[in-house]
Amino acid sequence: MNLSYILNELGEERENYFQAIAPPIVQTSNYAFKTVEDLRRAFEDEMSDYLYSRGIHPTLDILRKKLAALDDAEECLVFNSGAAAIFAAVLAFVKSGDHIVSVRNPYTWAQRMFDNILPRFGITTTYIDGSQIQHWQNALQPNTVFFYLESPNSWNYSIQPVSEVAGLAKENNIITLLDNSYCTPLYQQPLSFGIDLAMQTATKYISGHSDTLGGILCGSRRLLKKIFDTEYLAIGSGIQPFNAWLLIRGLRTLPLRLQRIFHTTKQVIRFLKQHPKVEKILFPLDESFPHYRLATQQMKDAGGLFTFVLKTPRRDDIVRFCESLQHILMAVSWGGHESLILPKCAAIPPHEFDSSREEHRYIRMYVGLEEADYLIRDLENALEKI
Ligand SMILES: Cc1ncc(COP(=O)(O)O)c(C=O)c1O
User: How confident is the model over 327-351, as pLDDT tens digits?
Assistant: First the structure.
């Protein structure tokens, strides 16, 4: 992958806009045509033309070229959020009566789509522990049309044997999507394992500054054209020029940010692992992690997001720890410049908190761009409070 070329030059035709270094935000809703024939051609293949900004527009085109190249894909579509990308991709390949196999505990709004929206159209989903190919095989039904993967998962980091799952899917004419938000294509390339659709929330690492949302699908031209011609245009969730521009800007520093974040994460994990009040760390590239070997085979590196469990069984202690942090912010999302903490118990009514269920005690941490010592001191002080 020629990263320097992709991030600095690919798609940027500076002679068309005054040799400006930063590309323009082409903020228009529609485009004018000189001839009826040109307009007819745009109607015929809106994906290859500029007609109306619900479809493709010039700022987005620069972004699509870069993102497709990063995933070594023929084609890329960018949506207004990761959730929109997931919804469009799944909707494009299912019909009433179909069946989906998904990893257990996928991203929340993917799960809500499977549980609350698709059943209204007679589409069912089976959730599995996706770490063994046998589980995918066992879940197959004659009407299975879609495999949904998230490797690693963004709370428990479980990993799927991606090549094997993609191979099984191919044998059975099943479309595969892998949520690759955790690694980005810099550290894992789903299409190289035979996956059909590589998905990412661009809100996280691609944006990198917690100031915009976006969602990415990369794959073959045939599949993405099918999504574009129906769901992308019909739902109208394509990314708009300013947000596309922010994502281009985010891409410029993606490798640097990831290197720094991954390095700092390992220092923070080292600190937490030796701390007497910490029971456990969940991180795919930690040797104690159950899927460590598979993770090292599939991923070049990882960092940023990990989960830890305090020794205390008490919800009050988890609350006190989180509320004692002075610099690490308590918030959803991840992938930006700022370090974050997210206690699972915040999503559970207090009377339902059950300390015997380990996941109720999960605290997810995202390591941003701060100095490692700064974060470690903050964690150390908060741990002293419990
Ligand atoms: C792993 C993962 N996939 C998908 C999404 C959805 O992305 P967005 O928030 O951009 O809709 C998220 C958001 O948190 C996520 O963490």
Answer: 999 999 999 999 999 999 999 999 9
Q: Which helix (H) or strand (E) holds 262?
A: helix 254-273
Share of the chain above pLDDT 70, in %: 100
Residue of the CA atom closest to atom 2 of ligand 1: 107
R_g (Cα) of the chain, nearest Å: 22
* Domain regions of the chain by residue span: 3-252, 254-384
Taking the whole predicted model, whether its pTM rises above 0.85 is answered as yes
* Cα–Cα nearest to 167, from 218, 142, 133: 133
Residues lining ligand 1, CB < 6 A? 81-83, 107, 154, 179, 181, 201, 203, 213, 215, 333
Helix/strand/coil for 250: helix
CA of 83 to the centre of ligand 1 (A): 6
Structural contact between residues 108 and 344, judged by C-beta atoms closer than 8 angstroms: no
- Nearest-atom number in ligand 1 for the CA of 153 is 1
Q: Which residues of 56-92 are buried (b: 16+ CB within 10 A; e: fewer)?
A: bbbbbbbbbbbbbbbbebebbbbbbbbbbbbbbbbbb
Ligand 1 binding pocket mutation candidate from 204, 207, 340 (most atoms within 8 A of CB): 204
Q: Domain 254-384 sits in which CATH superfamily? A: Aspartate Aminotransferase, domain 1 (3.90.1150.10)
CATH class belonging to 3-252: alpha beta
Is the per-residue pLDDT at 1 higher than 90?
no
Distance in Å, CA 13 to ligand 1 centroid: 31
Average pLDDT for 283-309:
96
β-pair type (197-201, 305-310)? unpaired
pLDDT tens-place string over residues 300-313: 999 999 999 999 99
Q: How far is the CA of 252 from the centre of ligand 1 (A)?
A: 21
Tell me what the pLDDT averaged over the chain comes to.
Answer: 97
* Distance between Cα 237 and ligand 1 center (Å): 15
Separation of CA 238 and ligand 1 centre (Å): 16
CA of 89 to the centre of ligand 1 (A): 14
